[in-house]
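Exercise 7. Given the encoded structure of a 412-residue chain, write a plausible sequence.
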């Protein structure tokens, strides 16, 4: 693999040297370049392309968010990392709409290396081309404006507690993903990955969340994207919510896994949102393949590739945003869990089974539903997981959830 060029930016010369020293380890394949201040950074990005830009947030004249915003516009496929001190939380929450990852200062060198290496691994796996530009260029997933109104007024109400906010967020894919991205960034010094939305909100606190919602509203929102004509955000949300309930309430074997299953299932089709907003034509074709798949038509290799694309777009977005590994793998492999890393197949499988159940519910009667499920499911995974005898029970319990027909019909 060719060297990955990384630009390090800080106005403090000693901090910049220290940063370079902490990242200068053999065998990473990284080629480090240093920019002393914002102007030098802008000059460097005008001359060369970078796989990643790591930038200090607080700099005189132009801050790190402005530098990364320039990177986003001129080199959308570059990984953008912001370094922020403990007193800069508000600014870094706002800056998260231009950065993929946040690193709290001071940061243990090993942690920074690990975080950067992980993001660069996804960057390399995306390959050079449109998909990488699109995935790395996404900063906000579409959210209905109504959600912002509901959340903003809930957060302004002194009587609102965490449970109220979690309830609103759990039904909303875009902000749910953003909350997990922020909670998992090392600027908050979290000792372990957080995959449950309730824990993430509790950890961040309502004040930080208020800044996050404000920033998402300013920087993103549905109006700023040219979404595919066929895209119906309400339908996508209803589908995600149906799968999330099926994953948590039917397939997850015990309550301990239910919250994680809910989150992963809620996010499983974020790649659809990415495609609908940035590659509308591909989105349209993917929908056609999914419909053919549901009718039981065999998939040609190009169809299979197209189906994989939304899963890859979503999984890599989750990876580049620093979401926990099991969630990333579940999104990446929700159509074929047998291809996930063996120790991460469990969650991917739960989401996959819930997705198949959702599709099967479009049929009438348990027998036809079981047949549809058997047609759609990744049999390699099902038999390896020893779950073949669970189908009848899953179908029965899924039917008793009373999911709305519209949620079941919305597909992918
Ligand atoms: Fe789906
Ligand atoms: Fe999907």
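Solution.
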């Amino acid at each position: 693999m060719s060297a990955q060029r990384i630009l390090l930016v800080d106005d403090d010369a000693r901090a910049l040297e220290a940063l370079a020293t902490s990242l200068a380890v053999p065998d990473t394949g990284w080629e480090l370049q240093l920019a002393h201040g914002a102007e030098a950074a802008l000059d460097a990005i005008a001359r060369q392309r970078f796989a990643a830009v790591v930038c200090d947030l607080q700099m005189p004249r132009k801050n790190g968010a402005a530098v990364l915003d320039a990177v986003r516009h001129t080199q959308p496929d570059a990984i953008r990392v912001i370094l922020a001190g403990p007193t800069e939380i508000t600014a870094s929450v706002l800056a998260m709409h231009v950065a993929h990852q946040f690193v709290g200062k001071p940061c243990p060198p090993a942690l920074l290396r690990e975080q950067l290496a992980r993001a660069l691994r996804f960057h390399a796996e995306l390959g050079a081309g449109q998909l990488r530009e699109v995935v790395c260029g996404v900063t906000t997933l579409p959210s209905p404006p109504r959600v912002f109104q509901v959340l903003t007024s809930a957060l302004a109400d002194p009587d609102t507690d965490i449970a109220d906010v979690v309830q609103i967020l759990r039904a909303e894919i875009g902000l749910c993903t953003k909350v997990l991205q922020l909670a998992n960034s090392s600027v908050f010094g979290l000792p372990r990955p957080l995959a449950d939305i309730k824990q993430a909100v509790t950890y961040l606190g309502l004040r930080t969340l208020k800044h996050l919602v404000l920033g998402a509203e300013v920087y993103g929102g549905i109006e700023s994207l040219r979404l595919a004509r066929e895209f119906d955000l309400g339908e996508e949300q209803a589908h995600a919510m149906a799968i999330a309930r099926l994953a948590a309430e039917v397939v997850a074997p015990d309550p301990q896994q239910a919250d994680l299953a809910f989150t992963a299932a809620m996010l499983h089709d974020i790649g659809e949102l990415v495609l609908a907003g940035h590659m509308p034509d591909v989105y349209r074709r993917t929908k056609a393949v999914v419909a053919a798949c549901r009718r039981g038509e065999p998939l040609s290799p190009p169809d299979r590739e197209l189906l994989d694309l939304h899963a890859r777009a979503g999984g890599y977005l989750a990876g580049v945003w620093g979401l926990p590994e099991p969630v990333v793998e579940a999104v990446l492999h929700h159509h074929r869990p047998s291809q996930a890393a063996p120790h991460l197949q469990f969650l991917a499988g739960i989401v996959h089974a819930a997705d198949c159940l959702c599709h099967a519910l479009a049929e009438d009667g348990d027998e036809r539903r079981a047949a549809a499920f058997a047609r759609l499911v990744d049999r390699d995974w099902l038999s390896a997981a020893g779950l073949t005898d669970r189908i009848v029970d899953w179908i029965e319990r899924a039917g008793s959830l009373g999911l709305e027909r519209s949620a079941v019909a919305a597909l992918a």
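Remark. The mean pLDDT is 87. Students should compare their own answers with the one above.
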